[in-house]
């Protein structure tokens, strides 16, 4: 069996789960006297993406977002140069602990899209791993208890060791559950698409800083996609945000919250106004049938634009109003994250997210 002398993993990681998995694999590679290099794709420039050496085993690691992969990682893979290397894909998902079980998340298109793109670019898919690390989605649930985190991370470490033993020795590792969950992953694919075209923009505009914010700019400096701007000494989240949870989980003041009241208002307005506009103008009044696809699609595009505009305008309004201490307090007290513990992968600190230049 051919083994590669060199391992390279390009990763995106919001709160350190994917990074931790990369470090485990890299350590296993070094134990086998392989040269191993892992690099964050944070704020990558598409013109400086380096091809991996011909014989290298190449890995891509990233979290699952909205039954897909983060748009930023997808973009990276799309811009990645063609090649013939053996490749593995590792997506971390939302693991939970129920009794003695580490319950799985769901990948949707998180593996399928990169498999398709990389195969078309000439790469050979050698390994797939969906790793159910502790869920980091603090906007929708509190951080897991430390005992649950420890349990889940231990299980995942064992899985990664088993996986890397195979791929580092040149064998294929495509697990049986990939095929078992395939119908379910395909069934949720419309949600994955919806997340990529709309959901991520909506989530980006639910973050705000409470009065605890002291303007230290850590969130701006460490945002992996450069989505945060400091305006009037307060962070402002642009549509580039991937909702990776890094800012919320690393803010030393714990000042970053998700506004659930604003999220509810956005959902209410964005589902009622654009959808009724679409139905009335493009389906009812024009007397269209479902088969009239050109007008149907332009109607959808307009509805999409209208939805984004509503979200954008509401966020600008909230950002302006938040300057008022009373209104700021209202948003804080109507945010569930105000009471919730944060999450970072064990052993991971802010220093682990420092951007370093990739080797030439
Ligand atoms: C915005 C967002 C969406 C997510 N969507 C999914 C999902 O669809 N399926 C899933 O299993 N986990 C989902 N998760 C959980 C993360 O994929 C998971 O916690 C991952 O391990 C985080 O890795 P990281 O620390 O490297 O960013 C989501 C998390 C966030 C923040």
Kindly describe this structure.
It is globular, with a radius of gyration of 22 Å. It has a 5-stranded parallel beta sheet, with helices on both faces. It has a two-stranded antiparallel ribbon with strand order 5-6. A two-stranded antiparallel sheet has the order 8-11. The two termini are 30 Å apart. The protein contains 12 helices and 11 strands. Strand 3, helix 2 and strand 4 form a beta-alpha-beta unit. 44% of the residues lie in helices and 15% in strands. It has 2 domains: 184 residues, Rossmann fold (3-Layer(aba) Sandwich), CATH 3.40.50; 146 residues, Alpha-Beta Plaits (2-Layer Sandwich). The longest helix has 29 residues. The mean pLDDT is 93. By secondary structure, it is α/β, with parallel strands linked by helices. The structure holds flavin mononucleotide. The site of flavin mononucleotide has 25 residues, from helix 1.
